[in-house]
Amino acid sequence: MKLVFDVDSISTPLTGIGRYTYELAKQLQMTSALTEIRYLGQRGWVDDLNQLIKPQTTAHFVQKNPILRPLARIVQQQFKKSVAAYHARHLHDHLYHAPNFIMRIFGRPSVTTIHDLSHVYFPECHPKERVRFLHRELPKTIAQSTHLIAVSEHIRQEVIAYYGVKPQHISAVHHAVANYFKPRNEHELLPVLAPFQLKPKQYLLAVATLEPRKNVERLLYAYEKLDETIKKHCPLVLVGTKGWLNHSLEQTIHMLSRKNQIKYLGYVSENELAFLYAGAAAFAFPSLYEGFGFPVLEAMASGTPVLTSNRSSLPEVAGEAAKLINPEDIDAISSGLEQVLTDNTFREKAISAGLEQARQFTWAKCALNTIQVYKKTLSTQKPSSP
To answer: For residue range 23-79, what is the model confidence (pLDDT) as tens digits?
Structure first.
């Protein structure tokens, strides 16, 4: 079996889709089921995946200009499709996998991964041009794909219901958690936490891009309602890059920072993030909507009690190992935070159950299930002429 695997979503810093693409690509390299695998980047073939996660310069002028952004997206997508079509023009016997919503190569057996439908159910949580782009392009990709992958059963059911996809044409294949997210002792934690002025098990951690869907503002207000003794012992540490539409959120963060109740660290390295998870007293992730929810498993694998939402795919990923709350109820979030921070009986059970839950999600398992989808795809349709 020969594969063209699209890696144009891999860039630094690695976020959810980039992480999925990178980790799956590495695992696919090691499988004997593939006789050949070629990685297709934005500008052509990629030999070394690690080159894609080196720091890159970005066109900040275009990113910040609301007039140029929509035009830039259209031009960029057309360019990437042209590049893909040119480089793959002779590879008619290769299966094509698009792991980031949109296909760039047509006219052959293909698999596309759909990560969520937040542009459908939470359009207000995205820039308008992103919503328009996905409404325009995703139906075309769904119609042209031989088979689809959803990253959770929840998303699989949403795609079936909204787009009318036949159940046999879409499979749920879970993401996974990297093995460097693991419990660590105090001796290991101290030198990494010290530069952040943090002590092991004396802070509440939240990891999220600063954008509306991540529900960070409600988390901040819920944290503010906690007893002063809890907040003094466990400041809220917020990790994540700035998203869009976050002016109000930035003001709230600034207000609480002045009260010494919150530390906003912004972007941290993967190594630092792993230690921040392991050193936290608890982890909070009250997102309004997730296709999967990497941070939940990363915290569990690190031996940290988790609070998360009872919405979308998060109960599926968290299982019985997390405190589930209504993410729109600030009082419920606050009460849940108090429990994961102070109820020692709950904490012990959550740590043990979380470690076991995280062990169910490995990248080797993800790759194995993805290979099964490839085999199913090739058994239902032979390559057609481009």
So the answer is: 999 999 999 999 999 999 887 888 888 887 766 544 444 455 555 555 555 555 555
Closest CA to 78 of 1, 137, 143, 19: 137
pLDDT in tens, 213-257: 889 999 999 999 999 999 999 999 999 877 665 667 777 777 777
Alpha helices (runs of H) in the chain, residue ranges in sequence order: 16-29, 60-64, 68-87, 118-121, 128-144, 153-163, 186-193, 216-224, 228-233, 247-258, 270-279, 294-301, 314-318, 330-342, 344-358, 363-380
d(CA 124, CA 308): 21
Query: 201 and 281 in contact (C-beta within 8 Å)?
Result: yes
Joined together, the tokens standing for residue 180 give 């460097």
Rounded Cα distance, 259 and 381, in Å:
61
d(CA 6, CA 20): 12
Cβ atoms of residues 117 and 134 within 8 Å: no
Domains annotated for the chain, with CATH where assigned, are 2-176+363-380 (3.40.50.2000), 186-358 (3.40.50.2000)
- Three-state DSSP string of 92-149: CCCEEEECCCCCCCCCCCEEEEECCCHHHHCHHHCCHHHHHHHHHHHHHHHHHCCEEE
Q: Which of 321, 243, 322, 231 is nearest to 284 (CA)?
A: 322
Measured from the Cβ of residue 227, the count of other Cβ atoms closer than 10 Å reads 12
Is the pLDDT reported for residue 136 higher than 60?
Answer: yes
Q: How many residues does the chain have?
A: 386
Instruction: Name the maximum alpha-carbon separation found in the chain.
Output: 68
CA dihedral 86, 89, 93, 99 (to 10 degrees): 20
